[in-house]
Structures are given as structure tokens and as C-alpha cells.
Amino acid sequence: MQLCKLGVKQSEFIVSGEISSMLRLLSVKNQLIVALQSIEQQLSPFHEQDPEQRSWGSAEAHQKCAEQAADCKQLLDRVMHLESENELKMTHRRDQIAQQLQAAQSSASARRAYQVHHARPQRLGVSFDDALSCPTEQPHLDLQTGP
Predict the structure, then answer these.
(1) What is the structure's pLDDT at 119?
(2) Burial (0-12, 13-18, 19+ Cβ within 10 Å), 121
(3) pTM score, whole prediction
(4) Residue 142's Cα: distance from chain center in Å?
């Protein structure tokens, strides 16, 4: 149940972009998974046994154990579904961030190129005053090549 609750909270952290909170949550989830693996190892001798062949203290104990096993399977299915959804959300989030970084990098590159090109004003050898006093008549150019 704790893993299921943490999976829901992890989803919220992914959507809100709270990465540091999510990393702390993943640490807690990891501890729970390690504990669950330990329990699984302790139960491994019983996996091959048929529950109907075991000796039960009572029919109620057998029924209760069967119900708990079914509940645990449902929770495990829910946890696995949440993990799958969260992985997809994280992948989508990663791709969005990559696109944003790419756009920012392209923008920065364009800005640097513009700044380099326009940072050094080109000296044309003409002052502002000279430009204002340019004659309005165009000089005649002789384009003839022969005598």
C-alpha cells in the first residue's frame, strides 16, 4: 500500500516538476522495494506448494490468506501500472526539457552570431557630416573602352 501511495505522489511530483522531492521519494521507494524483496525471499520455499495441500489452522485462516494474496496481487498490479505511467511521464518530460534546451541553445547561438556581426561597426571612411553634404548630382562615369 505504501508503494502504491508513493507511486501516486511520484506522479504528482513529475507533473509539477518537483525533481528534488521526487528523488527523495525514490529513495524511500527503494527502501520499501528492498524490504519487499526480503519478504519475497523468505516466502520463496512456499511458491511451489499448492495452497490446498497445506495444513491450515482453520477454513477461515485459509480464506483470509487467499483474500490477502488477491489483495496483494491487485496492489502489485496497481504499483506496476503506476510505474509504467510514471516512466512514460518522465520520458515525455525529459523530451520536453530537451526541446526547450535545444531551442534555448539555438536562440543563444543566433544571438551570439548577431552580436559578433553587429558588435563592430564598419568604418566606411565617411563621417556623418560628409554624408549630409553629399552632392545630389551623380558624377558622370565614362564607361567607353575605346579611343
Answers:
(1) 62
(2) exposed
(3) 0.63
(4) 70
